[in-house]
Amino acid sequence: MSDLRVLTGPEVEQHGNRDSCWIIVHEHPGGSKIILKYAGKDATEAYEPIHPPDAITTNLPVDKHLGAIDTSTVVKVVKEVTEAEKQRQALMDARPPLDNIINMHDFEVVAKAVLPEKAWAYYSSASDDEITIRENRLAYQRVWFRPRILRDVSSVDWSTTILGQKSSLPVYISATALGKLGHPDGELCLTRAAAKQGVIQMIATLASCSFDDIIDAAAPGQTFFLQLYVNRDREITRKYVQHAERRGVKGLFITVDAPQLGRREKDMRMKFVDDGAGAKVQENQKDVKKDQGVARAISSFIDPSLSWKDIPWFKSITKMPIVLKGIATAEDAILAYEAGAQGIVLSNHGGRQLDTARSGLEVLLEVVVALRQRGYFPNPNFEIYVDGGVRRASDVLKALALGAKAVGVGRPFLYAFCAYGQEGVEKAIQIFRDEFEMNMRLLGAKSLSDLEPEMVDASALTQHVVMVPQDNLYQNTYQPLAVAQFRSTKL
């Protein structure tokens, strides 16, 4: 780029049509319609929330890089501030002080109020009738504690290791996509907070920030895992995985429950988020559906042919521990162990894939039994994780007592940084820490190794019609699905 000429704004404006289309951008915004919308103009603001910053340099041929721009000659695109945006900014200014946030539900309430409508729809949506996303939460409330008393709990320790890596909590930050839809710094909020708090971050394939930007923002010795959607082009996947390993990532979590993304109707009702709603991994790909919400727009590169026969190939291209993310039955847990995986995540993708799939917590019961019967569990070289529905440290302790090594938490940390940035994530981790201290003392567990199945009563977990007290905080934050609306302008 240093050898290319410097362009001026008026020069670029002369190329503002389909036949000769130049745009100014930190990177291009993606999609022909959005490119033409910004033809001859500066499109940076439309691009940055939804693309990693290296998408152009990675994917666009060098001969398409026309040169640098003399910014003093550029007429900026005037962004119209809508009434909705003014209201959103007013709500941002009126947020509760962070000191007033005392649980994960509080973050969700604030995020729902301050996020743009389309961002909230993408983050909060789940598949079909959203039965599973609600069941994920309710499952934990069908498990009851059996606390032990008169144990010395003057000092309690909730630190652990996950895939052999030290963690200050038995919780890792699970992968969530497109962080910049909710905060300008996107996933970097998670990275910086995780570094300060000693928590492991799982980097999402579909992060808004580039993989290298996240790694570059890390503290010395900070631990990362990588969540992988497998690309139809396996060479792209191979390069991505091996690059991650070279940069020090400590675990590869392959998503195995998404041969196709589920119908997330809250997101779909937003229709077309923008032609820019894409991911780095699908730059230059044709036939990307962008009229069915963000999820469909960013997922068309995922390979539906992924199968058990591919696991040996993954083992051949990396020395990172391989964890299969999205196991939903004991049968597949056994196959994962026998295929040589180092771990599994019992997950239904946050309720975003197959609706009425069971919660990871419920699946944990049958998985532990099946693995024990075959002598596969417990095994220091094979770990079980659970994600979905966790809002309290007490939820985590229930999963650990039933056999999980650690628990993944996604949306609560996402909502924390959407509402309050890095400080929000740090506060969320501190809330977990405070709850661990209290709950472990009340449960009679001095360390996580003291947790055992006898400390919980999970007899009602598999009963899907059980009367329990309503979780008012969850019900007050859950947004019910909507139905098709009449066009008010026609009435």
How would you characterize this protein structure?
It is a single chain. This protein has helices at 9-13, 32-37, 44-47, 55-59, 83-93, 104-114, 117-124, 131-140, 188-197, 211-216, 234-246, 265-268, 293-298, 311-317, 330-338, 360-373, 393-401, 411-443, 472-477, and strands spanning 6-7, 68-69, 144-145, 160-162, 165-167, 171-173, 201-203, 224-228, 252-255, 322-327, 343-346, 383-387, 406-409, 456-457. It is of the alpha/beta class and 491 residues long. The chain folds into two domains: 9-73, Cytochrome b5-like heme/steroid binding domain (Flavocytochrome B2, Chain A, domain 1); 119-276 and 288-457, TIM Barrel. An eight-stranded parallel sheet has the order 6-13-12-11-10-9-8-7. Strand 12 (383-387), helix 17 and strand 13 form a beta-alpha-beta unit. The N and C termini lie far apart (55 Å). 47% of the residues are buried. The model is unreliable at 27-31 and 275-283 (pLDDT under 50).
Q: Report the total helices.
A: 19
Residues in helices, as a percent range = 25-40%
Number of domains: 2
Question: Hey, roughly how much beta strand do the residues contain?
Answer: 5-15%
CATH class membership of the largest domain: Alpha Beta
Give the full name of the CATH homologous superfamily of the largest domain.
Answer: Aldolase class I
First CA to last CA: what distance? Answer: 55 Å
| CATH topology name of the largest domain | TIM Barrel
Contiguous low-pLDDT stretches (5 residues minimum) are 27-31, 275-283
Q: What is the level-2 CATH architecture name of the largest domain?
A: Alpha-Beta Barrel
Rounded to an integer in angstroms, the radius of gyration calculated over CA atoms is: 23 Å
Largest sheet: 8 strands, parallel
Query: What is the count of β-strands?
Result: 14
Give the integer mean of the pLDDT values: 87
